[in-house]
């Protein structure tokens, strides 16, 4: 099912995410232990792992928020340690906990984040109109985000994360607690973004969502214990589902740290 | 007095213009493991708060262990173990101190409840001196359950204990609930994860403050989807496949399920005939797999909720 990465750009552009020996320690604790992997442009990449496996620390490094202790990584072609500001300008970010400001209207949120991403007033105005039109949300522009149904909030948050046309968008458990229909509409937005060439780097605790990624990695105790297409991982671990793959890999690590 | 461990009859709770719970009726039998399944905002937390007497209903009645949630609220609090979705532990207290605190609130001791919590507490015992705030997610959850059980309640009320918890910790938590069920404890538990329905004796699906049908065993809930369901796979971009399938005459719904798409047909169609229709429609594609499939709870949930509440 996985669409081929665009061959024209693959030849002359670096991978969307590239990590070699990427490591982060906190005192004696190694949160991320020399991980190496690549994510191709336009790929939907599922970044899985148990609670405490090191996913959040890895994402903080890949988004330029946290300096690596050792190793190196490039996101959208820029070194996350040496050029973190260049990285931040070329990525989008959305999580379940942090998306939009409830006390601002839809339009105010778009304007605020447009400013954060360094867009000009004119670009913000044009993209706001285009975004509202594309989502059929023009009638919601003056609504406070806190008053909107969860499904709308998420659609808008995702659209805002894509407002500055980032090369890579990081989604940290974007669908937790959401009803099954809204969850699927959100993923249809992910497919559309990937089809348009945006790289999607996503974490989830829903293993059916993992099945629909182009490739997934499973982190265990700070390391990448497995990486491949869902079909490859099924075959490698003689499992019928990603749920079984995950439990097989992560269960020995279920002890507290 | 009621024979049911929990009985709700027309429960309503309003917040401003919103009916958080809009007339919910259900019975939970003694010893039953009962699931309330629905997304954020469905009203699960408000329903549970009424059952544990921290919020009074605006209309309707409910009993827990035979006692009325309004008139007998003090006695109910002694008999119920409640694990709220958030903030149920003191992060600055150690594992052992949290347990001792919750025991003392109920006028008992950790030793008195030790037998009941032993299988849950065992993996935590080596970390008895660690601050609760420094535990991993799965360990916090086991400590919270231990604290809810330390006074030996007759009814356990668990509000989204597995939300945000990884799949391994979720499986382990449900194993613990199965163990408590075998001991005869009555448990009502809420979750947004449809696949956890299978671990319950009966489930109620909840959305928009209402139950989407009478509580029933999970297999019966799944079977309530009275329309042919066909699983489809095909090579190529998923967005295009979905759009194509949704345009096929007779297709009521097409939804991604993992690497495949579940396609619901017209209610009166034979599954094999409907599958043949889809096979024909996809004749030009490569890697096509089409086969009728038995619906699950998530298929039934989407069917029952319709598109009315979807943004």
Notes on the structure:
The complex is a heterodimer of chains A (257) and B (311). With 257 residues, chain A is an alpha/beta fold. Chain A contains ten helices and ten strands. In chain A, the strands form two sheets. A six-stranded mixed beta sheet of chain A has the order 6-7-8-3-9-10, sandwiched between helices. Chain A has a four-stranded antiparallel beta sheet with strand order 2-1-4-5. Chain A starts with 6 loop residues before the first helix and ends in a 7-residue tail after the last helix. Residues 1-11 of chain A have low confidence and may be disordered. With 311 residues, chain B is of the alpha/beta class. Helices cover 33% and strands 24% of the residues of chain B. Chain B is built from ten helices and 14 strands. Chain B has helices at 44-51, 73-79, 95-105, 110-121, 137-149, 167-182, 218-223, 238-246, 271-281, 297-305; strands at 6-15, 18-28, 33-37, 59-64, 67-68, 80-83, 155-158, 186-191, 202-207, 210-211, 229-233, 253-257, 260-264, 289-292. In chain B, the strands form three sheets. In chain B, strands 6-7-8-3-9-10 form a six-stranded mixed beta sheet, sandwiched between helices. Chain B has a four-stranded antiparallel beta sheet with strand order 2-1-4-5, covered by helices on one side. The two termini of chain B are 43 Å apart. The model of chain B has no long low-confidence stretch (mean pLDDT 92).
């Amino acid at each position: 099912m996985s669409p081929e990465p665009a061959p024209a750009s693959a030849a002359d552009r670096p991978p969307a995410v590239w990590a070699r020996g990427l490591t982060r320690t906190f005192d004696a604790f190694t949160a991320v232990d020399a991980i190496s992997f690549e994510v191709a442009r336009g790929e939907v990449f599922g970044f899985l792992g148990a609670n405490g496996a090191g996913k959040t620390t890895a994402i903080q490094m890949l988004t330029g928020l946290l300096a690596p202790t050792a190793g190196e990584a490039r996101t959208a072609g820029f070194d996350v340690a040496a050029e973190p500001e260049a990285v931040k300008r070329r990525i989008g970010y959305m999580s379940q906990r942090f998306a939009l400001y409830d006390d601002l209207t839809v339009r105010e949120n778009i304007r605020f984040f447009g400013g954060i991403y360094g867009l000009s007033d004119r670009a913000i105005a044009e993209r706001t109109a285009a975004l509202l039109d594309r989502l059929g949300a023009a009638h919601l522009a003056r609504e406070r985000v806190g008053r909107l149904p969860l499904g709308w909030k998420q659609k808008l948050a995702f659209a805002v994360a894509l407002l500055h046309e980032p090369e890579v968008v990081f989604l940290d458990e974007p669908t937790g607690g959401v009803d099954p229909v809204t969850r699927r509409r959100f993923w249809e937005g992910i497919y559309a973004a990937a089809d348009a060439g945006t790289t999607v780097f996503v974490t989830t605790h829903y293993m059916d969502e993992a099945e629909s990624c182009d490739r997934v990695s499973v982190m265990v105790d700070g390391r990448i214990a497995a990486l491949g297409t869902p079909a490859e991982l099924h075959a490698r671990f003689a499992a019928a589902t990603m749920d079984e793959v995950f439990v097989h890999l992560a269960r020995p690590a279920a002890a507290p740290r | 007095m009621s024979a049911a461990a929990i009985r709700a009859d027309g429960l309503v709770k309003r917040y401003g213009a919103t009916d958080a719970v809009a007339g919910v009726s259900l019975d939970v039998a003694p010893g039953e493991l009962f699931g309330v399944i629905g997304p954020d905002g469905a009203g699960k937390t408000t329903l549970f708060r009424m059952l544990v007497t921290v919020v009074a209903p605006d209309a309707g009645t409910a009993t827990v262990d035979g006692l009325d949630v309004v008139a007998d609220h003090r006695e109910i609090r002694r008999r119920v173990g409640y694990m709220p979705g958030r903030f149920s532990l003191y992060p600055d207290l150690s594992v052992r101190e949290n347990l001792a605190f919750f025991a003392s609130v109920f006028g008992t001791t950790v030793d008195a409840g030790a037998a009941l919590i032993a299988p849950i507490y065992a993996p935590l015992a080596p970390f008895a001196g660690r601050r609760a705030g420094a535990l991993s997610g799965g360990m916090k959850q086991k400590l919270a359950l231990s604290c809810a059980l330390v006074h030996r309640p007759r009814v356990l009320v668990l509000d989204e204990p597995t939300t945000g918890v990884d799949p391994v910790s979720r499986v382990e938590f449900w194993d613990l609930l199965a163990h408590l069920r075998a001991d005869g404890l009555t448990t009502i538990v809420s979750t947004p994860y449809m696949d956890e329905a299978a671990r319950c004796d009966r489930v109620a699906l909840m959305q928009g403050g209402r139950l989407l049908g009478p509580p029933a065993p999970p297999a019966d809930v799944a079977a309530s989807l009275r329309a042919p369901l066909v699983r489809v796979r095909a090579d190529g971009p998923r967005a295009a496949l979905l759009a194509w399938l949704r345009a096929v005459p007779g297709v009521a719904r097409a939804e991604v399920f993992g690497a495949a798409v579940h396609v619901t047909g017209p209610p009166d169609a034979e599954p094999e005939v409907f599958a043949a229709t889809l096979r024909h429609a996809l004749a030009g594609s490569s890697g096509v797999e089409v086969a009728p499939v038995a619906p699950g709870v998530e298929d039934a949930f989407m069917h029952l909720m319709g598109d009315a509440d979807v943004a």
